[in-house]
Amino acid sequence: MKRHKFLFLFLSAIFLGSLLTGCGEMEFPDPNSPDLENAPVSTLVTGALAGMRVDYAIYLRTVSIVGREAYYFEPADPRYTGEIMRANPDPGGFLLNRPWTARYQVVANCRFILEKAQQTSGETQAGLEGFAKTIMAYQLLLNLNYLDENGIKLDYSGDINAPFATKAEAFAYIENLLDEAYTALGNAGSSFSFTLSSGFAGFNTPATFRQFNRALMARVKLYQGKYQEALTALQNSFVDASAPMDKGVYLVYGTGLGDQVNEIYEDPQADFVKLMAHPSFETDAEAGDQRFATKVYKRSVATQFDNLTSDLAVTITSSDVDPLPIIRNEELLLIRAEANIQLGNLSAAQADINAVRAAAGLGAVTLSDQTSAFNQLVYERRYSLFLEGHRWVDMRRWGKLDELPLDRPDDAVLQYMPRPETEVPGK
Q1: 47: closest CA among 111, 98, 95?
Q2: Element housing 340 (H / E)
Q3: Global pTM?
Q4: Cβ atoms of 258 and 243 closer than 8 Å
Q5: Is the torsion defined by CA of 40, 44, 45, 47 positive or negative?
Q6: pLDDT (mean) for 5-31
Q7: How many helices (H) and strands (E) does the chain have?
């Protein structure tokens, strides 16, 4: 995208994220006429990390509603219970355009980092390239999750006539970014020349950031049905059946000056709660599943809104400064289990599924055949990854969208988002 389109929002992201790492110095020669060419690398990195949080709550709400994990009862805006639950999203509306634009703003920021990298050399250059390309790949993947068969744009010139890449082309581009980043990180030495946020604790060196990179690659491979390649990527990730399920990389939030709070959080006992779990999350839960018990709060009185009803407030966060996961060990174990099921390695899949179940307070299961094993995997992903942005993507890639519940006569399940009208000539 052209630089002037991102200047204001980029600088806003830098300001909002200035406290994210403690090293967000504003070293512009003239604050009234900032020059991105002179922004220090640490500020660019901080801006990218801050930008990853922008409108992520809208993305999570939207994909969770479409995937029938949750409702969002917003009296001021009927689109959350209207158009997206009726498979008729507005191509010019904010539910599509704000997350889409925010992700590309981070991509633009990362491209500035890549330009800075060219002014350096050796391990410093490799570290910057490895970071920027990994983050770019992740942001593009989120937009591809949104549009799926409608594709995304890989041309950043700002030309509205630039074509959309197909889904296959987009996946290939994302894979290439991750592979290039992985190679660069291997040449980046023992430490980065910049500081990452606390959400990268344990993954803030080139070697450990490489594990994060391979974790993302495993997700990308799984989404495409490349099961053996997903297993190969996992070998160099941080997957570990003996490690905590929540080990991983996170978006972090704060209440300090210029920081951003976690907009997913709501007090579950408030008079009116907007984000509510779909009732089927309770009816389909296995007795004793702590993933259900810890991720929702059953209110004494159900909320009725727009002919929808739920008494389950979402409690995946307990405060407005709680982090949100980018990717966790629990997801990686289930990626490995799914890949092994699809490849017929049921004993390996059983071990990983039972590790996940044990952490949830459930007993072990025996995977006796591929069909029952897959059905078990579907259940485990639903409850392990609740409201983390996967259910809609999973049901779509499994060909199971028609199994999602319809709550009202005119409801329908959306397959994928339309192309934003601002990206289509003549709109």
Answers
A1: 111
A2: helix 329-342
A3: 0.92
A4: no
A5: positive
A6: 39
A7: 14, 6
Helix/strand/coil for 165: strand
Q: 3-class secondary structure for 231-296?
A: HHHHCCCCCCCCCCCCCEEEECCCCCCCCCCCCCCCCCCCCCCCEEECCHHHHCCCCCCHHHHHHE
Strand order, beta sheet including 296-305: 70-72, 275-277, 308-314, 296-305
Q: In whole angstroms, what is the distance from residue 329 CA to residue 396 CA?
A: 23
* Rounded distance between C-alpha atoms, residue 44 and residue 28, angstroms: 12
**E strands present in 154-252:** 248-251
Which two structure tokens, joined as six digits, stand for 5? 């389109």
Q: Are 196 and 45 in contact (CB under 8 A)?
A: yes
Tokens in use for 84? 């997206």
pLDDT at 157: 85
End-to-end CA distance of the chain: 19
**How many residues in the chain?**
427
Q: For 25-77, give the DSSP string.
A: ----S-TTS--GGG--HHHHHHHHHHHTTTTHHHHHHHHHHHTTSEEE--TT-
Q: Which residues, in sequence order, are CB contacts of 425 under 8 Å at separation 6+?
A: 160, 161
pLDDT tens, 38-60?
788 999 999 999 999 999 999 99
For residue 370, give every residue at least 6 positions away whose Cβ sits within 8 Å of its Cβ, in sequence order, or none: 341, 344, 346
Residues 6+ apart with CB under 8 A from 358: 364
CA–CA separation, 182 and 217 (whole Å)? 10
